[in-house]
Structures are given as structure tokens and as C-alpha cells.
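Translate sequence into C-alpha cells.
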Amino acid sequence: MLNRLRPALSRVLTPIARTLARWGVTPNVITIVGTVGVVAGALAFFPRGQLFWGTIVITAFVLFDMLDGAVARVTGTGSTWGAFLDSTMDRVADGAIFSGLALWFAGKGDSTPLAALALFCLVAGGIVSYAKARAEGLGYTCNVGIAERSERLVVALIGAGLDGLGVHYALPVALVLLAVASAITVVQRFAVVHKQAVANEQAQV
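Result follows.
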């Protein structure tokens, strides 16, 4: 859904990317710094219940991390290694965010159901990403789903940020929405790959 914003976002990021490229900053450095910042923000702030400031720090590094692709485009230095690194570091960042929330609810947040829900969102998000990667590795397309990574991040961070500002129902609602949307996305991806696999097998008969 957020893919519609990519053209406008690209126009904003490209001038910044050119500046970073002139300074000698590489896409891989941006990826690593962005991931380290997200992990640090999530695990330093969320488990202590500092949800608003944790969200601010994470959002800043998520936005910074978005520059890796822009720098790669303006410098022509995109590579398969860079793509692999970026995708892998995304999983690390997502794991830190939802682990931080789970630790908060399992500790002073005092809500085992919400801790379990945060862990479910973490696992379901991983399955969503893995299903696409595995499908593409087998030669199928899997560009479907109502909850891709960008949507999941936006919902989680808005929920956490509002909770940190005193809107305490925001994060539970966000986690429930994420859990449902992630489960639906997994089903959607299974269905579209199954359809392609059956069609491929029938074509080979």
C-alpha cells in the first residue's frame, strides 16, 4: 500500500543521497548504521517503557536506513550482496522492535497476553518475509499481502508512540491489527504460490 508513495519519497531522498555519496558514504554503511540504531533504540528504550522516545529514535534510524537504496541508485553501486545485507538487516531490526515490546509487556508492562501478541507479530512478520523470499527463490512471484514490512513498521511505531504519550489502548490495538493483518498476508502468499505451483505442475504433464 505504501508503494504508491515511493515516487514522492524518491524525490525527497535523492538530493540527500547525492550529498552522502559525495561524502563517501556507501549504501552498506547506511544499512549497518541504520540497523544498529534501530536495535539500540528498541532494546534500550522499549523494555523500560520509554515507548515514545524509543519510537522517535527508531523512526529516525528507519528513515536514515531508507537512504541505502537511494545512494546505490545515484552511485550505480547496487549489488546482490547489498540486497542480501539490506534484507537480512531488516529482519534483525524487526526482531529488535518486537522483542523490545515483548520484554516491556513481560516485565513492568505486566501483560503476558500482550507479550505473547508481540511475539506472534514477530514470528508472523518473519513468515511473511520468508514466504516471499522462498517463493522468489523457486521462481514464483509473491508480491501480495495487506501487511508488508513498511505497513507493519508504521502501525507498530504509531501504536508505540501514542502509547508513550498516554494513549494506552493504542499499542494493544496496533498489535491486534498487526497480528490479524500478518496472518491474512501469510494466507494470501500461500494461496498465490500454491496457485502458481499447481499451474506449473499441470503445464509439465
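Note: The mean pLDDT is 91.
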